[in-house]
């Protein structure tokens, strides 16, 4: 029990020079530090009483052990829960890392609006109350050729709202091959059930024909819904019915043709030989009554979902009670408005997601070589360049891979997993990829303004391993 008697008193810990520096110079609240010391000493006491104390603990070092544990706990608690990171994974729209990055001008607009009062629901012309729904509707209509549009907080919400407002208690026909589940266990069938719509499945997993829809449509049918397959694709013995074939059928029977596009692509990637994914503009032009899509994927904006299409249907959606539940705030509108403005201006290179997708492989290779030339002499890390492949990510374009180049690190002694842990604990955190005991930094997803931070991190790690 002599070890128990060596646990330092709280007052002694608080009066330590390091503690006083934290309180008086670094601004750590006295009560916060006191609470941490109380928690740590209590944990150490329990550990000793349960005979679980490490053999390294002794009467001579328990004071320093307590201080060390307490300061580490304090540092963890003061660390911001939501932090910016450097994405070196090669996945451009990385869902776990926040999906699309905002353009600089969009981020500036968010800051401007967040710090001030704004015209969120105020009309400067009339001096009366305005509608937040009018803030970006004209830009959306102009860009995609729709009669009307509305913004909600994500595309899952858009699907839920469309079905709730237009098909509650009524039948919606969907191909079995499109009843998808995407990230976060989002299942189309379950969303339909929650909305009150009645699901009518047609076709098989791999093949659905126009005749399947023709046989299924009846007086109870309110809508035919097409769903983008998002994060997978099928090939081989498959068949599906496109929107051009479905439009005459829905017109003939007076039912809504609704397409959940998943990712809202406004830029024609086929012109760059990347994908033949249809743009929202093309889908609207085919006569689809309603489309919905994400804003924070290929559109490169904030988290939001857009519903666009025929004015009569949008008005029904706008007046539904769920619309208020699912609406977005002023900062989302600010970021979305600026992102749409960049599309209007044709300033695609200013939208980080599109810039990363369209970046030329040779340009990436040159960026890696320039980075290596700036590295200091490393004692424990070997670096090289490798041809790699990147992906768009975010449940978009699953069949597309993008040629890329990576900085590759290997080590004489250290383990790759240990190095990636040190990278994650760096400030800013750096998220890299490990394959075959190699650490990869894919430069398709790394900005040039992040190079200095990575060089500094590599230099520090070289001294630690």
TrEMBL record:
The UniProt catalytic activity note for this protein reads: L-seryl-tRNA(Sec) + selenophosphate + H(+) = L-selenocysteinyl-tRNA(Sec) + phosphate
Q: What class of enzyme is it?
A: transferase
A Gene Ontology molecular function term of the record? L-seryl-tRNA(Sec) selenium transferase activity
**EC number(s) given by UniProt:** 2.9.1.1
Q: According to its UniProt record, which cofactors does this protein need? A: pyridoxal 5'-phosphate
The UniProt entry, under InterPro entries, shows: PyrdxlP-dep_Trfase, PyrdxlP-dep_Trfase_major, SelA-like, SelA_trans
Q: What is its main location?
A: cytoplasm
Quick one: which pathway? Aminoacyl-tRNA biosynthesis; selenocysteinyl-tRNA(Sec) biosynthesis; selenocysteinyl-tRNA(Sec) from L-seryl-tRNA(Sec) (bacterial route): step 1/1
Cellular location(s): Cytoplasm
What's a Pfam family this protein contains? Answer: SelA
The source's superkingdom equals: Bacteria
Gene3D superfamilies in the cross-refs: 3.90.1150.180, Type I PLP-dependent aspartate aminotransferase-like (Major domain) (3.40.640.10)
Q: Which keywords belong to this entry?
A: Cytoplasm, Protein biosynthesis, Pyridoxal phosphate, Selenium, Transferase
| Modification N6-(pyridoxal phosphate)lysine, positions | 297
What the protein does?
Converts seryl-tRNA(Sec) to selenocysteinyl-tRNA(Sec) required for selenoprotein biosynthesis.
Assigned protein family: Belongs to the SelA family.
Protein name, per record: L-seryl-tRNA(Sec) selenium transferase
| Organism per entry | Alkalibacillus salilacus
Organism lineage reads as: Bacteria, Bacillati, Bacillota, Bacilli, Bacillales
- Recorded name of the encoding gene: selA
């Amino acid at each position: 029990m002599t070890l128990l008697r060596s646990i330092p008193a709280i007052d002694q810990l608080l009066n330590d020079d390091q503690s006083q520096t934290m309180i008086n110079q670094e601004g750590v609240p006295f009560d916060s530090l006191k609470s941490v010391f109380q928690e740590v000493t209590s944990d150490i006491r329990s550990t000793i009483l349960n005979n679980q104390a490490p053999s390294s603990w002794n009467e001579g070092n328990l004071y320093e052990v307590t201080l060390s544990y307490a300061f580490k706990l304090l540092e963890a608690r003061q660390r911001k829960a939501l932090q910016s990171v450097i994405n070196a994974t090669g996945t451009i729209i990385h869902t776990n890392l926040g999906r699309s990055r905002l353009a600089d001008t969009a981020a500036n607009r968010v800051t401007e609006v967040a710090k001030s009062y704004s015209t969120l629901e105020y009309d400067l012309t009339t001096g009366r109350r305005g509608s937040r729904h009018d803030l970006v509707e004209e830009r959306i209509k102009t860009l995609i050729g729709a009669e009307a549009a509305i913004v909600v907080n994500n595309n899952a919400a858009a699907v839920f709202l469309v079905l709730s407002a237009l098909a509650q208690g009524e039948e919606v026909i969907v191909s079995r091959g499109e009843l998808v589940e995407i990230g976060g266990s989002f299942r189309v069938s379950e969303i339909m059930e929650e909305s009150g719509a009645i699901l009518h499945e047609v076709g098989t997993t791999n093949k659905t024909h126009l005749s399947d829809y023709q046989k299924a449509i009846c007086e109870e049918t309110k809508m035919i819904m097409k769903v983008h397959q998002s994060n997978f694709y099928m090939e081989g013995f498959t068949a599906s019915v496109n929107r051009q074939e479905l439009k005459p059928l829905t017109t003939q029977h007076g039912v809504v043709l609704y397409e959940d596009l998943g990712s809202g692509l406004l830029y024609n990637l086929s012109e760059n030989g990347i994908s033949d994914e249809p743009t929202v503009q093309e889908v609207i032009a085919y006569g689809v009554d309603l489309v919905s899509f994400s804003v924070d994927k290929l559109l490169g904006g904030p988290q939001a979902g857009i519903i666009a299409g025929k004015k009569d249907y949008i008005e029904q959606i706008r007046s539904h009670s769920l619309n208020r539940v699912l609406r977005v705030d002023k900062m989302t509108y600010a970021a979305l408005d600026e992102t749409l403005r960049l599309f209007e201006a044709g300033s695609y290179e200013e939208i980080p997601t599109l810039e990363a997708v369209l970046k030329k492989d040779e340009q990436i290779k040159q960026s890696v070589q320039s980075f290596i030339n700036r590295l200091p002499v490393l004692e424990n890390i070997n670096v090289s360049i490798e041809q790699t492949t990147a992906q768009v990510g975010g449940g978009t374009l699953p069949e597309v891979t993008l040629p890329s180049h990576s900085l590759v690190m290997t080590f004489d002694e250290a383990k790759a997993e240990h190095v990636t842990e040190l990278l994650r604990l760096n400030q800013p955190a750096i998220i890299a990829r490990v394959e075959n005991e190699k650490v990869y930094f894919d430069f398709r997803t790394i900005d040039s303004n992040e190079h200095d931070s990575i060089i500094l991190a590599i230099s520090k790690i070289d001294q630690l391993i």
